[in-house]
Amino acid sequence: MNNKFNIDFVARKKLFFIISIAAIAVSILSSFIFGANLDIQFKGGTILTYIYDGAIDQSQFEADATAALEGIGVTSTVGEDFSSGRNNIQLSLISNSGLTSDKQIALSDAISEKYAANNIELLESSDVSPSSGREFFLKCIVAVLLSFIVLIVYIALRFKNIGGWLAGVCAVTALLHDCIIVYGTFIICHMSINANFMAVVLTILGYSINNTIVIYDRIRENEILFRKKKTKTEIVNMSINQSLTRSVNTSITTIVAMLAVTIVAAVYGVTSIISFSLPMMIGMIAGAYSSVCFTCPLWLTLEDKIGKKPKAKKAKA
Amino acid sequence: MRKIKKPVFFVVFALILLFAASVFFGVTTYYGDMNTVYVKGVDNIRFGIDIRGGVDVTFTSPEDIDATDAQLDAAKEVIVQRMINLGITDYESFIDYGNDRIIVRFPWKEGEANFDPEEAVKELGETAELTFREGYEVDEAGMYTGVTKDNVILVGSDVQEAYAAYSEDKSGNLEWQVSLELTSEGAKKFADATTKLAPSRGVISIWMDETCFSYPQVQTAITDGRASITGNFDADEAKALADKINSGALPFKLVTASFSTISPSLGSGALEAMVVAGIIAFAFIAVFMIALYRLPGAVAVVALVGQVAGTLAFISGYFGFMNGSILTIPGIAGIILAVGMGVDANIITSERIREELANGKTLDGSIESGFRRAFSAILDGNVTMILVAIILMGAFGTPDSIFSKLLHFVFFMFGPSTAGTIYSFGFTLLTGVALNLFFGVLCSRLMLASLSKFKALRNPKLYGGVRHEQ
């Protein structure tokens, strides 16, 4: 009765490995084809500040600027000057977007003509270099690597009875797999890589490791109950199936909740939130998939390979 | 478990609802026009520039100075450090080397009562050069002159570390001061000067830019590399001065070229959209949980309300002993992950109870062993989250926080400046997961066990027990 599901996940490992490798390949390839879209904080660029009177439609202004710049995308914020009390609008352009001085003049002309009624004038034009971008990313990478090490050690200690070290390494491999897919989503959707990207990667990292640990926990329990009666493959399959209802229900709940966020953001026209919620959703799907279909088959395969080598090593693990 | 009585549910339920209500609405009284905030509600949450916008300041070097790239880099580092000291952990900063400009953005909401952006901007642009000078010769305006102007004994960069400290005077009052640990070079200069001045009972005056704090007499030669600054400080002033010294001095006074408000970088309406999205997502989770797991599902929803309220409470500064934090998109990601963990903890437990029932156990036995057997998975999942959160807080927190000190051996090669928004992710994740262990495990268990004592609620169907039998 426990076995509402009885899917032989381990036997289908070839299919799962192919799916995973294909997803990773697409992510990496597209990063070469499209190139990463780095945010102004990481790439540097130009910030133009205009002051004006009256009211200006922000999205219309962005569209006009993009048209004047022959398709270069801009982002903008609006505000009010503290000293003069006049309205301002700031345009941010990323540096590799191909902004030449000709184009900048064309932009100025177009803007001052179109918004003449608003007495628009250019207050400031700053060419900014990347702020702490490089250091920020390096620090993130070091933090993520340290997390990986800590996770492997923790899993090795807590899951000693099922050969913890290898289980930890496989869990972390699955995390890498998920992170690459999240990265690929950003690239393919032309979303800019910024601090929010790191937030999504970190969220998926946590989400996915938790999924894996729940399954490992079931294997740990079943290993004690059925060590003598069943093979390792049977135990792993049984454990994945027993926890499958939970995996599916948790995934549906979280993924649909993110879908709701995406839809609301679209309805409100705040598209920048979508560049956060959509990759989050894809990452959740990847995380749910990898812990059910990828991690354990990988672990059994590796254990098989290592098990054929000298026994001493296995005893240690 | 058997000891848990019927009323327990109502107590836990009422406490969670009361807590949630006070977090969402705050506790304030209106007396005429006077509005007194006793407990900060969600309205008091400070949002990041991404969600609610803020201010944008452009600093430039003074006209007569042509700043080098290195000076601009150093100035930016100092400004960032000062912002962190002011509690601004969410900021953007850019340098325009060509025009000698430093652009800084930080969150602010119009009408924000306890944060004055103009004051903050003034403080950010100050040179803040600490000097120890020989003698106390001043002109009518109180500005140093003569010997005092020419003979500088120590400057801010001779200080290794400054911290606020206090001593008790004879009548038992606390006297706050700033203690300085000097670098070896500074210690030597200070030792030389005090050795020279001690016999004549000379005076050393201590200045921050053009303000003199005090001018103590030198009693003996000081050779241990320690000095202190007194000057009628209270605790906050001493701490602020120590922070200022630790952040270092700017190479020159910065001029504010422009200063304006900016709209949210996510686009206007971002906050409203986030709130609506959050409510809809939560409503969906509630309906789904109750539809799937009936009674344990309903209990889970109450526990989740408690968890979300608790996380928001930590961010808004609801608990008086802790400062609030700035909520940014990464911070919201942390909340989402923690809520996901909360949902998962309840799903794992509910599934286990269902399994135990399907195996033919009694209701009480199923609830008890369901919680027990689910716990190891929940614990391991949540502990790994806590470990990751601590690493992130250590990597991106302010240099003097516990976690930063703990992980200094890994991140020593990075400057302290990248406190950034990822810290906010670690913060909400850590609090969220810790609250999950409290609400999602402990409170859920108390509520469900106590509800199961009611006769009307003893039908296994309410726990998903019969689904498999049909």
Give a structural overview.
The complex is a heterodimer of chains A (317) and B (470). With 317 residues, chain A is an alpha+beta fold. Chain A has eleven helices and four strands, in the order ααβαββαβααααααα. Chain A has a four-stranded antiparallel β-sheet. Chain A is elongated, with a radius of gyration of 26 Å. The C terminus of chain A is likely disordered. With 470 residues, chain B is an alpha+beta fold. Helix content of chain B is 49%, strand content 19%. Chain B has 13 helices and 15 strands. A four-stranded antiparallel β-sheet of chain B has the order 5-6-4-14. Chain B has a four-stranded antiparallel β-sheet with strand order 8-7-11-12. Chains A and B meet through strand 2, strand 4, helix 5, helix 7 and helix 9 of A and strand 4, strand 5, strand 14, helix 8 and helix 9 of B.
Radius of gyration of chain B: 29 Å
Mean pLDDT of chain B: 85
Distance between the termini of chain B: 30 Å
Query: How would you spell out the order of helices and strands of chain B?
Result: HEEEHEHEEHEHEEEHEEEHEHEHHHHH
Low-confidence stretches of chain B: none
- Based on Cα principal axes, name the global outline of chain B: elongated
Q: SS-based structural class of chain B?
A: alpha+beta
Judged by helices, strands and strand pairing, the structural class of chain A is alpha+beta
Biggest sheet of chain A, strands in spatial order? Answer: 2-3-1-4
Helix content of chain A: 55-70%
Uncertain parts of chain A: 311-317
Question: Count the strands of chain B?
Answer: 15
Give me the oligomer status.
Answer: heterodimer
Count of discrete alpha- or pi-helical segments spanning 4 or more residues of chain B: 13
The count of β-strands of chain A is 4
